[in-house]
Amino acid sequence: MWAATCLASCCATCACNACQSAVSGIGRRSARIAYCGLFALSLAVSWLLREVAAPLMEKLPWINHFHRTPDREWFETDAVLRVSLGNSLFFAVLAIIMVGIKDQKDPRDGVHHGGWMAKIFCWCVLVFLMFFVPNGVVSFYETASKFGSGFFLLVQVVLLLDFVHGWNESWISKDENFWYMALLIVSLVCYIGTFSFSGLLFHWFTPSGHDCGLNTFFIVLTLIFIFVFAVVALHPKVNGSLLPASIVSLYCTYLCYSGLSSEPRDYECNGLHNHSKAISTGSLTLGLFSTILSVVYSAVRAGSSTALLSPPISPRASVDKPLLPFNKADEQEVASPVTYSYSFFHLVFCLASMYSAMLLTGWSTSVGESGKLIDVGWPSVWVRIGTGWATAVLYIWSLIAPILFPDREF
């Protein structure tokens, strides 16, 4: 018994030392990646509890106020929402704490980049405590998450536009025929994919013999947007290019497909109902993958990609400042400005947590088939379609805004 106790104590000590060594190795450069890892951990926990937590949650005391025991699908959805709520609160608190940081001399800079053992402990405690909050709180968070998910999709759009414009400028700046030809080839491939995909949308979602005017409207409006993109981008007064227009066109077509494929499986105009399980799994996988990519990209460029999201830069020591006695320690205290907005960075993670919860719960409207159908229902349809329209408006605005406001930098 004594040997077993000693061995267990040694194992626990080694584990703690290993954790401390791991978190102590997280420096300024790797802090953003560490936050991405914590977000990925929340997705893994949500997925795991969604699959196995229902029998355990049925025994929790807060469930006793129900007049009857809910279906198993309710417990699966509730487990995901509670993990998401804890994760969102964690990043929301950090976002509030980090408001207004201008330079690395701010004590809160150390909170953002350090204290990882304490932050991981707080994250675990928050997620654990969410399983004991009243059901009304979770219901309110479920409703709020639908709006938060919409904002996250808009963040995705902003990041996409930033990426495609940067890609285009990078290749054009090389000023070589090879890169111009590469721009043309990529643009043509994207347009071929766009129009081929649009033909499939008509085939899948406007079956003959049914009145599918709504689906036809969605697809035709997307094609109109694609035509407008090309016309505006090629206008002589607009500093545009076919590459961003073609990529945004393909993305809008994907969003249209994503929205139409989320229509209820018993809807007569959804031609994918015979493959509902496969489509649902594919939508979930692609949705989570795009979410993780967006979060990682925002972790690398959040706040520094556009002037709107960048923090105000604090000036370094002025050269006109009167000469005063100082030593090397005083010289080292000259603070460097932060390179991105910490507050916006954490806000992205907060919104991404809401969006991931909606993906894993089918927007909390229909889990169906023992909870295996994901991202299905009219709320999902309108969120995706609305995001496509917002993408179109923001892209057109990014082209014409420099003309309308020549004195501003975009």
Give a brief description.
The chain has 410 residues and is mostly helical. The chain is 69% helix and 0% strand.
Describe what this molecule looks like in 3D.
This protein is mainly α and 410 residues long. The protein has one domain (29-56, 71-308, 336-404). It is 69% helix and 0% strand. It has helices at residues 2-24, 31-52, 54-57, 72-97, 107-113, 116-129, 135-173, 177-205, 213-233, 242-261, 276-301, 328-332, 342-360, 378-404. Helix 7 (135-173) packs across helix 13. The longest helix is centred in the middle third of the chain and has 39 residues, at 135-173.
Structural class: mainly alpha
How many strand segments? Answer: 0
Shape: flat
Q: What letter string, H or E per element, gives the SSE order? A: HHHHHHHHHHHHHH
* Main sheet overview: none
- The N- to C-terminal Cα distance equals 70 Å
State the low-pLDDT regions, or none. 1-19, 303-333, 366-373
Provide a count of the helices. 14
Give the total of domains. 1
Q: What percentage of the residues does DSSP assign to strands (E)? A: under 5%
**Helical residues, percent:** 55-70%
Chain-averaged pLDDT? 76
* Radius of gyration from the alpha-carbon trace, in angstroms: 25 Å
Secondary-structure topology with pairs:
Blueprint: H1 2-24, H2 31-52, H3 54-57, H4 72-97, H5 107-113, H6 116-129, H7 135-173, H8 177-205, H9 213-233, H10 242-261, H11 276-301, H12 328-332, H13 342-360, H14 378-404
